[in-house]
Amino acid sequence: MDSLITAAARALAAGDPLGALKRVALRDDAPALALRGIAMAQLGDFVRAKALVRSAARAFGTKEAVARARCIVAEAEIALASRDLGWPAKTLDAARATLEAHGDRANAVHARYLAVRRLLLVGRLDEAERTLDALAPAPLPPASRAVHELVVAGIAMRRIQTKTARAALERAEFAARHAGIPALSAEVENASRVLNTPAARLIARGEERLILLEEVEALFATNALIVDACRYVVRDAGTVVSLARRPVLFTLARVLAEAWPQDVPRDTLVARAFRLKLADESHRARLRVEAGRLRSELQALAGVSATQRGFALEPCDAREVVVLARPVEEKHAAVLAFLSDGESWTSSALALALGASQRTVQRSLDSLAEAGKVQSFGRGRALRWMTPPVPGFATTLLLPAPLPGD
User: Fold this and answer.
1) Which of 262, 303, 344, 350 is a Cys-bridge partner for 386, taking CB atoms 3.0 to 4.6 Å apart?
2) What range does the domain containing 128 cover?
């Protein structure tokens, strides 16, 4: 490897893409193409970066298996950064296996971290955690240790384990500072800021307030009956009942919880659960059926009793009933929550992360675009969607992970 290539590689490792480009910008040999691609990725031009890295992989050919595998790993990282979550995982696994077979452990481990971060983004926390447990961060360079701790923190945040997340972020900050890469330090800082921004709204006895993730964790440890409108479950300290596939029942549970300890008139329940302005006797009969179904679902947690004017929620053991809602609620809040990270997403990546069909996500994006809340750029497969982050809200932390079978 010549001196310019070596110097450019060192510049990239130190987070200096412009310094790298100064050395290889006019070269079209395979190593220079790869380094130019990585530099463009660090500068945020993912389309150009992807094209350069692919050209480098072709230029290396099959005889230079290690270099080609490194290009594949670089392309996977570009796909992750540009939120192209449909990038083939098997291709990354094959490249990782090649790197391991040739003793390039550092890049092989990096490939594993890319796979884990993708799993985290699509909500497959158990699988991400199992993969992460097989990796030992101690012998890795500082940059890789920082990435490891960022993933640990991300899993802990999604599991609402704030002490674990804070400890991991402290270790990530130390490793990033030791690595001396400004972009990595900024990523750690952004992740740390999430813990200090509101993650949900707490609604109880007619009042509501914004709460941090730490307060959500403390709430889950109490004996309160919680109607969780972030994950569509009803829970107490020991039992969780999912109503994610029963939207009418969940709406009834939420309305009753918001009014607790008072009851709710039948016409109000019909209007909220069935989205009707006027209720007749057939709707009230349907309400009685749905109330009976809700009573059956929640029998371990609460009763649903009929009153003279409507229905009321009666917790079995809990002394308090609260509703946990997203900080911002609107029709397409789940899509906005993912776009609020400031990154550009493809509609297919959003569909994977939300566990929804791509067509459903596309309709949501079109509606948000008409309202001026999101914008798109690019065409065809390069089409991306993004929006400036919503200031002060950690909106994705309490989104439900995709359900099995979705």
Assistant:
1) 344
2) 3-194
